[in-house]
Amino acid sequence: xxxxxxxxxxxxxxxxxxxxxxxxxxxxxxxxxxxxxxxxxxxxxxxxxxxxxxxxxxxxxxxxxxxxxxxxxxxxxxxxxxxxxxxxxxxxxxxxxxxxxxxxxxxxxxxxxxxxxxxxxxxxxxxxxxxxxxxxxxxxxxxxxxxxxxxxxxxxxxxxxxxxxxxxxxxxxxxxxxxxxxxxxxxxxxxxxx
Length: 194
Fold this sequence. Notes:
By secondary structure, the chain is an alpha/beta fold. It has helices spanning 2-13, 20-29, 64-75, 100-110, 120-126, 133-141, 169-178, 186-193, and strands at residues 35-41, 44-51, 54-59, 80-81, 118-119, 154-155. The strands form two sheets. It has a four-stranded mixed beta sheet with strand order 3-2-1-4, covered by helices on one side.
């Protein structure tokens, strides 16, 4: 009799919905909850989120509230504001939101030195998928941590700038120029690295 009651009580638990804040609280308790703070970049202020695995997101929004809403929409968890950025910002990344292919593209882009550019084709070659040039572009467009993983340093083989995960090609030109890349010479630079 007690076993039947226990089984019945356990089945009834499947109808109970946990409050949304419970997951957020659990994630923060185990160190996987995200916190965020603003970071000044050549593009102005952006918001950076991180957790114990590393940086999870970089987004350019007008307000902290807009950042929180966009972060929650993309990652299905809500970040909390932090007082300051971590000292090791950009050393580790939480890339759970991307596929293995996208991760390999992003990690290869991370190797491109400041002030230099490479082509989408170069990345495709380097990661062992030479025919996947468009897929490389798609992976870079989905970069959850632009600026810190420098997808802006990847251009088209014809020298055109290409798109940018953090606000389009105009922002890509601005950040490359801030790094000292002569953006008027991209066609020559891209041919040299292809």
